[in-house]
Design the sequence.
């Protein structure tokens, strides 16, 4: 009997507490873009979280690794990001043939900064974990730097990395 009475009181208490609350009015919020590992470089691409994970994927899938070093508030990084994300050929090639990683911090691997630490810079690493120092941008003082106007050169360098993969490894 006591259990029955407690059950009835619990149900009544629950009902009255939900009935007494005022209705919530719908508050319009801005539509937020979900934060992904892409950080705006290509949301449809599958991005590695860490350099170590990217190297593992590169080796196990026999695909070259594209490493992008950038900073969130750097105007040069933002401009390159926009050009990279909007270029359909690069996005398609990166999606189908590359392991991709973008980093906003330096790694402990000194091979990833052969000519210094600057942003933005893009390096290619083959599945044997060798940084392709021979695939560079157009600048002699920042060999791995690319600008939005260099997007076709980057595409060409990505294609060269794939050719090397087929002929050298």
Sequence:
């Amino acid at each position: 009997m006591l259990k029955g009475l407690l059950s009835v009181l619990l149900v009544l208490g629950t009902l009255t507490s939900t009935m007494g609350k005022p209705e919530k009015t719908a508050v319009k919020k801005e539509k937020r873009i979900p934060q992904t590992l892409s950080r705006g470089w290509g949301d449809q691409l599958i991005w590695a979280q860490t350099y170590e994970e990217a190297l593992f994927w590169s080796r196990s899938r026999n695909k070259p690794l594209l490493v992008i070093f950038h900073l969130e508030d750097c105007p040069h990084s933002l401009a390159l990001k926009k050009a990279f994300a909007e270029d359909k050929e690069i996005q398609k090639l990166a999606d189908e043939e590359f392991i991709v990683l973008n980093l906003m911090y330096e790694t402990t691997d000194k091979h990833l900064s052969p000519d210094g630490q600057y942003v933005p810079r893009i390096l290619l690493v083959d599945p044997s974990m060798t940084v392709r120092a021979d695939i560079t941008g157009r600048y002699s003082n920042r060999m791995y730097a690319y600008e939005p106007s260099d997007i076709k050169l980057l595409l060409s360098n990505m294609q060269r990395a794939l050719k090397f993969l087929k002929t050298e490894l």
Observations:
- DSSP finds five helices and three strands in the chain.
- The helical segments are 2-19, 51-61, 75-86, 88-97, 151-168.
- The CA atoms of residues 19 and 166 lie 69 Å apart.
